[in-house]
Every structure is written in C-alpha cells, then in structure tokens.
C-alpha cells in the first residue's frame, strides 16, 4: 500500500485533529449569520483581529459573521460550519462560491446539516467546484424530495468526501437517483458511514476511487456484484454491515485488480466446505475477517496472495492440513477462536507472526517451533493451559526460542489441574523421572528386577517355596479330612498326644517315652506313626489326621530332629493348629542340646518356638527322671472317652 493511500485511510483521524487545532469558532448559520460587510472595511483591521485570536497556526483561522469573505479566502485553509438548514443554505452557497479553485481553503467540515435533497446537492455541487479538497459532513438529515439531479463532476479539486450519520426521511424515491450521485464521483476517497445505507451502485464508468469506506451500514451480499469499474480501488472497508456469504464477497472483488486491503469484520459471514471455488482479487494482500461466523472451512476460501489475515473472534476449531496453501502469508490472527492446539506452519511457509491468544489450547504441540522455523513472534497467552509433562516440553522449547513468545511470562499461566491454577508457566516444573517415559519405564523395570531379586533371595533363604507347598498340601489334606469326618461323624479326640521324632531317636521314644506314659495307672494314649497311620492315606494326610485327633503334640528335639524333613512337616502342621485353634497344644522335649547354627534357616519357626516357649529337657541323671515324667504327665493330663480302639496297653 502506497504512502498516499495510508494517508487517505487515516484521513478521518488526522482531519479531526487538524480541525481541532485549526478551528476555534464555529460559524453558526442562523438567519442573521451573514450580513453585508462595509466597503470601507480595512484589511489591516482584519489582520489585526486575526492576530488577536489564540491560534496555533497563523495561516489558518475562522471568522465571525461580519468578516469580509473575499479577504478570508486568501488566509483560510480549514473551515468548520454547523447548524445548516434550508433557511441559511443560500448564504452557505454564497460563501463557498467565494472559494474558487486556487484559494487556500482545503478542508471543509459541515456539522448538523438538515436540508432537503436539492439544497444538499447544491452544497455538494458548490463545494465540488471550489478549492475544497477534503469535505466532511456529519449528522446529515436529508428531509425529502429525492429526485434526479444532473451532477457536474468536471473541474473539481475534491479528493475526499466523508459523510457520517446520514438520515433520509423520504420513504418513496428511486434508489438510482440517490446512489448514482455518489457512485459516479470522480474522487479518490469516499466514506459513507453509520447511515443505514442498504445499497450502493457500481460506477457507470471506470472510477477514480482508491478508497471506499461504508462502515456500519446495512449493505448485503448484493453489493458490487459483477462490477467492473472499480479497477483502481485499493482499500475497501465494509465493517459492521450485513454480509453473509464469504463466497459472494470474494466474487465482489474479482474485478478489483488493484485491491490491496479489505475489512469485512463484524458481519455475518460464513462458508461451507461444499461451496464452489472462491474468486478473490489476486492483488488482495490484507484481509480482515474478524468477528464473523466462520469455521474451519474458511481456509478453503482465502486469497492466494494474502500476506496479512485477521480471523479473530470466529468459530475456528483447527486449521485443516492441506486445505490452504498460502505461501505469501506473513501475519495470521486466530485469537478468540476454539483452537485446541497451535496450527503449525505446513501451509504457511512464510509466516512471521501468529496470534493464538484466548483459545482453548491446553497443551501446545512441542514441535510447533520446528514446523515454523521462520516465525518471529508467537502470541499464545491467556489460554487455559494444562500444566503437565507435555506442556513442560513446550516450556523448554520457549527457552530455546530466543524470546519469540510474545507476552511471556505474564500472559501464560496454568488453568488445570486445580492445584497448579494461577501458576505461571515459567515457575511450573515436574521431576524428569515423571515426564521421561523411557526413563520411567527403565526405572520401573530396574525396581521390578530388584524386587524379584529380593523376593527370590528371601524365598531361597527362608525356604518360602517349601512353606507354600506345605500350606497347599495342608489345605488340601484339611479339606479331605473334614470331608471324611463329615461322612464318618468322627470329630472327638482319640489321643492324648501325637509324638513327632526323628527315626534316629526312635530307641528313646520306644524304650523310654512310650513305656513310661502308656503303662501304669493314669496311662496316656499316644499317637505314633508306626502303629496309628492309616494305610492308603498320604503321609501328609496321616500327619494332619493324627494332629487333629490328638490333644497335644509332643516334639522330641535333637540334632537329628532338625535334619528330618518329615519332622519339619509335623512341626509346621502342629504350629498351624496352634494358631488356628488358639490352643496351647505344643510340648517340646529337648532330648539333646541343639546349637542355633545347627538349625537350618528355613526352620525359623522352630527357632521362634525354642526362644519363646518353655521346654522339658531330658535329664541325664536318673534321679531327676521321675520329676521329668511327672511334669510331662501334668502337661498332657486330660480325660478322654474310652473306646475299644484307643485303650492303653496292659502292663505285664
């Protein structure tokens, strides 16, 4: 866009500033505004009067009613008039007639104009042939009687016409009579704003318009369709109208060969994926489509040579890959949409600035900067960031981006989870172990292997497999024993004690223990495997059955005992009964001393029993044995029912 066009686009801003500086007194056009000026009015008096005004610029001023207008035309550059009606319009026309081409008056502002159609045209026509280059009319009420007017466009100095807040009270008129006047103006810039205008005709011939601004009207998709006479138009502003079809808007521009900037913001634009190919002007480089109803499909209907695109405040959820190939796009504004992630630059290789603020981005892609190597600035603040390991990867990339993240760190804060809400992303950190999946898996694997090794070591050292096997066998045998008892109805105790001993200690058991307990008065019925195990049952079942039918279990401890596998079984099952029935059924007889290092590691229960329970020690002295037998009988004393199968043997 040329420097002159930028000046035209910004004319309304600097013109108001200039008028504020240059104008201090409004010429109120009432009935007695213009009076005749005495012929002997001296120019030096006028100059003296002008110099007395508090002006910032000596080459611009305004006058009161009795100044000589002929003199004024040589000293005035800007003039502001207000309260213009049908009653004083002729005096205004007479005034403007004095400012012929070549005069210094260039800027004319008319405010609060309330006239009929012919008077309005007369004002425009007079200004058209004056020295005025910039004409601004604000708060214009066109009363009635719109009719055909043959406007003379020739010989004008006019460059810019601005009309704001125009109200037409005539309800019945030909639209051509109204719009043709403005459409055929041979000026560079035309603005008709805030005027409820519903249409504008295409110029009848190749127009000089380079700037058109129809801000805040009621224009629709019918505007400039198939119009071929706007070849020189560079800027078109249609903000805040009622356009609905993006495709028709593109067709409107296809003959505008010079169009560079277009503002379609704050309309009702939408586009569907099944629409036909859009037909934008190839020269269009800057397009504002903000505050519409556009979705992802908009990327199928964009100018191919666009350099600056504004899609802020729409309904875009993503940028479809492969749909748009905008090789010239340098600035893209996607703020206030519904994006869940940053779009990437696969279709925008020249992108330099991206705005994705105020979207729904929880975790930006960590490879974003890699896909956009030419990006100079990313605006992604004020999103509801989810502080997680994935976001931490994005934060690391920000530190490597060289300050390309605009608004960092103030605009970037956690929204989720709740415990991190309000925390700035620069202060968010998680341990490396929690975010590195490979490291986490490797650590978990090592811990698992370590756990397996520890368990294996404990299993070997404590003979856990043996205990598991024994528990299983005890459970199965117990179940079968219970089943057998249910059928046989035999649940009473039959023996005073079950005797467990090593086969190497059997002479002592047979020659000392059994004779002393089973013979004589108050005999003790003992369960001994050689005579009481039932043929056909497994050894484990017989052990469990004998322990269950016995009131006590006597264990004859010796170095031989700890070396016997079956003795260990019997001790294990008896220990189970001790805890399951909460009884005091174990009697330990220490036949020979046992040193702790002799007991295998897996016999930890035996170690515990010897450490916690008292035991009877077999005395070597014969004089002490009577007391031993008395204590043993006392430990197992209980009255059992007498049956034929469990009587004590008779003493010879």
TrEMBL record:
One of its GO terms (molecular function) is signaling receptor activity. The keyword Ion transport does not apply. Keywords: Glycoprotein, Immunity, Inflammatory response, Innate immunity, Leucine-rich repeat, Membrane, Receptor, Repeat, Signal, Transmembrane, Transmembrane helix. The keyword Protein biosynthesis does not apply. Its main location: membrane. SMART domains: LRR_TYP, LRRCT, TIR. Belongs to the Toll-like receptor family. This is TLR1 protein. The gene is Tlr1_0.
């Amino acid at each position: 866009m040329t420097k002159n066009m930028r000046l035209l686009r910004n004319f309304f801003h600097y013109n108001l500033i200039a008028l504020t500086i240059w104008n201090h007194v409004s010429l109120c056009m009432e009935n007695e505004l213009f009076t005749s000026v005495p012929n002997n009015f001296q120019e030096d008096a006028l100059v003296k009067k002008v110099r007395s005004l508090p002006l910032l610029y000596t080459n611009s001023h305004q006058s009161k009613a009795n100044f000589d207008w002929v003199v004024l035309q040589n000293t005035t550059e800007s003039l502001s008039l207000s309260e213009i009606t049908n009653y004083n319009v002729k005096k205004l026309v007479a005034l403007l007639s004095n400012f012929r081409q070549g005069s210094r008056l260039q800027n004319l502002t008319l405010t609060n104009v309330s006239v009929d159609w012919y008077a309005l045209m007369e004002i425009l026509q007079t200004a058209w042939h004056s020295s005025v280059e910039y004409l601004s009319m604000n708060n214009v009420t066109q009363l009635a009687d719109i009719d055909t007017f043959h406007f003379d466009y020739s010989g004008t100095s006019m460059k810019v016409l601005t009309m704001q807040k125009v109200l037409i009270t005539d309800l019945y008129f030909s639209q051509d009579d109204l719009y043709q006047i403005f459409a055929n103006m041979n000026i560079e810039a035309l603005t008709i704003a805030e005027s409820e205008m519903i249409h504008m005709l295409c110029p009848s011939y190749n127009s000089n318009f380079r700037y058109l601004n129809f801000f805040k009207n009621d224009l629709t998709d019918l505007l400039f369709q198939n119009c071929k006479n706007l070849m020189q138009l560079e800027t078109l502003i249609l903000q805040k109208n009622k356009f609905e079809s993006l495709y028709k808007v593109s067709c409107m521009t296809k003959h505008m060969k010079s169009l560079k900037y277009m503002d379609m913001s704050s309309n009702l634009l939408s586009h569907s994926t099944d629409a036909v190919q859009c037909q934008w002007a190839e020269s269009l480089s800057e397009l504002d489509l903000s505050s519409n109803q556009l979705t992802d499909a908009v990327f199928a209907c964009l100018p191919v040579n666009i350099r600056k695109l504004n899609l802020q405040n729409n309904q875009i959820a993503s940028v479809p890959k492969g749909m748009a190939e905008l090789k010239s796009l340098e600035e893209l504004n996607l703020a206030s949409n519904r994006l869940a992630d940053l779009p990437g630059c696969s279709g925008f290789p020249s992108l330099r600035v991206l705005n994705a603020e105020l979207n729904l981005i929880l975790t930006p892609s960590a490879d974003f900067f890699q896909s956009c190597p030419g990006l100079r600035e990313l605006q992604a603040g004020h999103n509801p960031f989810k502080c997680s390991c994935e976001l931490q990867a994005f934060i690391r990339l920000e530190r490597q981006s060289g300050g390309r993240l605009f608004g960092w760190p103030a605009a970037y804060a956690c929204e989720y989870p709740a415990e991190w809400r309000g925390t700035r992303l620069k202060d968010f950190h998680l341990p490396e172990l929690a975010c590195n999946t490979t490291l986490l898996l490797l650590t978990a694997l090592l811990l698992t292997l370590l756990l397996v090794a520890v368990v294996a070591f404990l299993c070997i050292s404590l003979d856990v497999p043996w205990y598991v096997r024994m528990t299983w066998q005890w459970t199965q045998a117990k179940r079968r024993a219970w089943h057998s008892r249910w059928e046989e109805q035999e649940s009473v105790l039959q023996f005073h004690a079950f005797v467990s001993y090593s086969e190497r200690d059997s002479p002592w058991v047979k020659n000392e223990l059994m004779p002393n307990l089973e013979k004589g008065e108050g005999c003790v019925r003992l369960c001994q495997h050689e005579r009481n195990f039932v043929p056909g049952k497994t050894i484990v079942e017989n052990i469990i059955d004998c322990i269950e039918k016995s009131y006590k279990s006597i264990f004859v401890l010796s170095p031989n005992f700890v070396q016997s596998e079956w003795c260990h079984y019997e001790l294990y099952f008896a220990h189970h009964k001790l805890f399951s029935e909460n009884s005091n059924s174990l009697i330990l007889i220490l036949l020979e001393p046992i040193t702790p290092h002799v007991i295998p590691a897996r016999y930890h229960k035996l170690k515990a029993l010897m450490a916690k329970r008292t035991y009877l020690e077999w005395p070597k002295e014969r004089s002490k044995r009577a007391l031993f037998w008395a204590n043993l009988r006392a430990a197992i004393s209980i009255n059992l029912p007498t049956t034929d199968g469990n009587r004590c043997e008779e003493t010879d």
